[in-house]
Amino acid sequence: MTDTTLKVVAADPNTVSGIKSVGTLIDELWLFGKQYKAEDMLREAIGGLASRPEGFVVYTTTQSNEPPAGVFRQKLQYARDVRDGKIHDPHFLPVIFEHPPEMVESGAHLLMENLAMVNPNLGYSVDEAFLYREYRKAREAGEEAFRGFMSKHANVEIGLALRSDRWAGADFWEQQGRRVSLDDILQRADVVTVGIDGGGLDDLLGMYVTGRDRETREWLGWGHAWAHETAVVRRKSEASRFQDLVACGDMTIVRRVGDDTAEVAEYVRRIHEAELLDHIGIDPSGVGQILDSLAEAGIPDGIVVGISQGWKLGGAIKTTERKLAEGVLVHGDQPLMAWCVGNARVEPKGNAILITKQASGRGKIDPLMALFNAVSLMSLNPEPKKKEYAVFFI
After folding, report:
1. CB neighbours (10 Å) of residue 21?
2. Which residues contact 374 (CB under 8 A, 6 or more apart)?
3. CB-based contacts of 301, cutoff 8 Å, min separation 6
């Protein structure tokens, strides 16, 4: 007899504080990635280890049914870095069942015969016939069901949330991701259009830059978002996601009203001074502060164009879909945009399709709407802003 006791507690700050356990098991860590201030709660849960050097923590989890976020994303990346030798931590033992990168790149990780590679208990505690039957059912049910199955039974990380009412362009978004930054666009493009959308205190302000490659004629895209501190407080369900996007450089949290539009104007000024800016497309409603910031940055009034929203934006939505499917719209493979594309919901309206904030619910899509605004202008085939001269020697 060791007088050891086992205590099961709920994942709540009021129940985990003050615990001084020797061993702590945290199950289904992916669920904590969706909780507000989950990192603080876990810190409370394992804080007692400071007085128990013999103590240990075990994290167990499947993959998330959505793109990894919050504390789950942090722990997963840390475990991968220790496994790959990027971080030296002799006190941390990662045991991760994932397919190798070359299989993921080729798509072989999605084959049924490769499920066994990441299921060491297949044929033992996991029934092989059941798993294969569920695999075939998920395949038949569509992309959303199949991704959900693979995340749970093959530990496949979801990069883009695909649902049945998703935007058609979402099916081609991931494969068009490249390493494209704003500097790349300024270096490679012969003309640039900018889209801006959103900007309420509890909303995102999204900006998207689209440039046309002077040699290949590809459309190059890069986006950024801003959120006021009020939005983080009011949207606690998305707080961990916001923190992840800030960490990867896709989002900026501002404290003072107006700092967001000033930073947008600074980006636009860089493009304008590079002699590449054609026009700026914005939602005509609620643009006062954006216009003021652009004017203070020295951007001419005639460059700003109001882009009609609703069903009138359907042409830009379809153009974006076709450019993605054709392989000529290349974007920066940003977590921000993958999140927004996954949030977008299509609402049919007569012969037109709508992607609106109302149809998309609580999911943020402002940077995606900014992309559509930029595409509306780029689809007009603007002339290069910077004249190029050829020199001939006789």
Report:
1. 19
2. 193, 194, 195, 208, 209, 210, 221, 281
3. 295
Amino acid, single-letter form, for residue 150: M
pTM (two decimals): 0.75
Ordered domains of the chain (ranges, CATH): 13-83 (no CATH), 106-153 (no CATH), 170-378 (3.30.420.240)
Which residue is listed with tokens 């049910």?
141
258, 170 contact by CB (below 8 A): no
Element (H, E) at 224: strand 219-228
* Nearest alpha-carbon partner for 206 in 271, 159, 252: 252
Report pLDDT digits (tens) over 130-165: 999 999 999 998 878 898 899 999 998 887 666 667
Question: Do 89 and 102 touch, CB atoms closer than 8 A?
Answer: no
Closest CA to 334 of 222, 244, 255, 236: 222
Q: Positive or negative CA dihedral for 245, 249, 250, 251?
A: positive
Q: What is the pLDDT of residues 313-350, one digit of tens each?
A: 888 999 999 999 999 999 999 999 999 998 888 877 66
DSSP structure class, residue 126: B
